[in-house]
Amino acid sequence: MSVEQVRKLLQEESCRNELFRQLEAEPFAAEVVRRHYPHLHDRWLQIGSAIQVPWQYVMIMELALAAALSPTAVLLPLPTLKIYPVVWWFLFHPGATNTSVVVRLYSDVLDLIEMDVNTRRRDMAKSWQEQNPGRDTRNPYTGDVSMTGGSGSLEGEGKLMALPQNLGRSVSFMTEGKRLLKWLQNEGAVNQSIVVELWERMKWKRSTVHADRTFTVMCPFFLAAGALHVEDPLDLYVLNDPLGVRGRLGLLYARPTFKRAAEVEEAAASITLARFGLEASITGVFKAVASVHDPVHSVSPAQFESFKGFHFRIYTLSAEARTAFHHVFDEHTKAHEEARLVNMAEAKYHSKDEIPSSQPGGPYLRTGAAGSVLSDYMDRVDRIFADFVADLKARLEPPQATANGRAGSGAGGRASMRQQLQQILDLPTASFRDLSPANAAILVQLCRALLRRDGAWLDSSAVLKAPNVKEILGAVAPAEQLHHYARAVRLLKLCKLLQMGLGTNPHGTPLIFAVKRVLPSAQDPAYVYYSNVLSAFGLRVGGRGSEYKAIDHTAADVPRPPAAPALAFEAVLTREESANMCAVIRAVAAHQPEA
């Protein structure tokens, strides 16, 4: 199985559509952003409407631009912890989503700011020359500032970054983000620590026998933002990612907007009527960010502190932000400790979350609720794509021959995720009597949550994201959560309270769809049988306080989800079946650890 095989599969329209359907189903908590930053939210919404892109695209580009103009900024949330605004953020898209429009807009804004800085710098150089005629001392304002990256080699970028007036900075807004990945891959063949050096702002020193290719960047500031097609980062997910790029890459997806011409025109007019007025308007907002973080142009040079010859502008946390930071830090430290030598992938993830400068969600953002929304969402996009690619890899594994000569379930005899889930969904009743106390407790709680849940259709991807379900599965590794869910669904199916089946989505993480039975009328004998089962689960049944909720999934106004199978109920529960299932439920409950 190779990267090219996965790439070929991803080129199928049905496969790509399934991936982006899953991403669209992942909620972004826009309300939190709007509540904390109403003016920014309205601004991003307005600009997004004017250029026909989601407002989240504008948010990402503006935050990246603010970071790009702050190469001297450093946050000290703890006395020995330094967090820099280095980001590698990309809009993850299937094509035809106007990503190039928003990337080009902020690339142009950066060009305008760079031009403005250099105009002022030339004026300062001229003034210095007039005030110091005939002096041999080098003019400190000689040489133009280069903020923007080019399309050459990473080595060429390093030569520019090494010039003192550039503050170690190279910023690229890339319509084709694959360029960053290629750069890092090519440089990584020579220097395997290049990713860490650029991300952590360690000294980047290139020594060669050719003097014109030798340079030293004491505190490199290498920032990239732009757009990535779905196949571009595949190497990071299919292979081992030896350079460690994936853990530092931030991916964001948002549903495209479909404004009509009159709406776009109205939004644009509300910002400016001038040609190129949008670029000028945004530039005016961000000029101040560039000035306050440049030791030469800042009105408060005393706010900068020198370290290794580089001038940093120091930021610290407010009391409220410090409390929030401590909570996040301690939470991930605890999770890292628990996962160590048990689940090393999870341990690695949490160890990087302890030091937020290693996280794509933006270190300086994680200290607030709105920042956590963005950071957590990027983490979820990464995991959805990783799970999707893992499923594609499993499908491409050649079947193995078993001892009896028949084809097995995949490489090494390991069943695919779909096969594993189907096995759980076919479990016999007796298997529920032999659960461990921990699994029994999770099973009972999940069943109660499902029985109380509103809605006609239960979709595993949505249910597993519900806060109460996430709390139940908090101690369960992410890879095992769907297995626990499948076991709960199977038990409720045996109780004839629910009908279920695997989704028809051919790619990505398999979905489990289920519908709950609307109880018979109180006059029907079966009503008593179902009431006994629900009571065994500890639910109140009947009357206005009834906890069991079910909606007829066959009603005309209830649409079937796109990937859901057709589901129909069996005959109602009999007295014998009810008594048997009540005994099973009581046995499961008896296995729970004592509170």
TrEMBL record:
Chain intervals for the UniProt region annotation (Disordered): 124-144
Name of the protein in question: Uncharacterized protein
The species this protein was found in: Symbiodinium microadriaticum (Dinoflagellate)
